[in-house]
Amino acid sequence: MQTSLILRILGILLMLFSFTMLPSALLSVWFGEHAWSGFVIAFAITLLTGFTLWYPGRHVRGELKTKDGFLVTVLFWTVLGCFGSIPLLLAPEVDLSATEAIFESISGLTTTGATVIVGIDALPRSILFYRQQLQWLGGMGIIVLALAILPMLGIGGMQLYRAETPGPVKDTKLTPRLTETAKALWLIYFGLTLACALGYWVAGMDAFDAICHSFATVAIGGFSTHDASLGHFQNDAVYWVAAFFMVISGANFALHFHAWRRREARHYWQDPEFRFYLAIIGAIAAVTVLLLMIARRYDASGALVHGVVNTVSIVTTTGFTTEPFSEWPSVLPYLLMFGAVVGGCAGSTAGGMKVIRALLILKQGHRELKRLIHPQGVFLVKLGRQPVADRIVEAVWGFGAVYMLVFAALLMGLLTLGHDFTTAFSTVVACLNNLGPGLGEVATSYRTLDDSALWIAIGAMLLGRLEIFTLLVLFTPMFWRR
Q1: Lowest-confidence region among 337-351, 355-369, 379-393
Q2: What does the radius of gyration of the chain's CA atoms come to, in whole angstroms?
């Protein structure tokens, strides 16, 4: 391990992150709130810590190795989550313990959207903005943002990109140079955020709510400035704007990049993952709307709006709600939760296992059925017309197996603590897939969970955000051997 180089990078990233606390401090002063001191103190602590880590190795130069990249990525998300909790811990209006503040911070950065705060409507606007900003930064990955300037500091960044970027194929770059890739991703990300904010504003939100909800929408986060989430607005136009941008943000950002560069959208429909992604959302939405109409929960119009918008939100792992879906009849709450397990596309801001993995697992299962009928036959797994290497298929199956084992371990942990099955199951689904809202005790807030359960949930959120292997690899003896 290149300890000096790793500490230098971590210091740089912490110093960069410290400046993201200043907008909330300025908002606090602007609105005449008292929360500004907590943000200033948190800024100073984070900046000083980052400087302390960076200064001893400021002259160190070198290329990160793969192991170093994994370690920096995991350290950054865990350390950042702790330092991001400081403003929440110092704010008397929020009244959180250290564990709860870290949970809220990591929930924001991992774009999970699970909250332990009750009475969100009464919070200072600076705190509300800070929570939304945490999700926006975590949505694309603040490390990818930092990669746009790290090469100028003499630090190679491809290892970080491989460790941070979601999906089964991690070596694909949109442009030949990694710096240009990071800039392109963030330009698209910022553009979608701006368009989403304008859409919300035109639909009827005030400017503050529009900006805050655009942060959470494009990040597939789900934090809201109101306890009732999107349901607070009672506005169908707002709901449809949210649904549109959640679908867009749950798609692979490489598709958006090529659409922007080539000025055409034909390749969206040519992409097998995107087609399967829309099919999953469409199928679950159709069942949801139908069952809501059969149960006479709403009239036809209400069933369509609430059924489609909530389906899009839960399946893409955003976590916004227009109505408490946990109270819906029949199998609907569990159907939506299982949809979140698949989640969005690889290369998006969504959580879940990713659509591409689900598609490859189905195709591999179909191939095995054909092999049973024709043992001597040679069958390829294809995405569109392109064959998929067996190595990738094996990696997907390996991910699926480890995912199930991790899921079972987390579930057993929560059940051991005495939580009922519905609460334990939905907590693991919601946190491991970076969804947010659950069922049972965690349908509206995680405040009822004790510290032990919250730490299990924190671990699940980090595992989900880092796609399990990035974090688990640090616990293998081989990783620490020279």
Answers
A1: 379-393
A2: 22
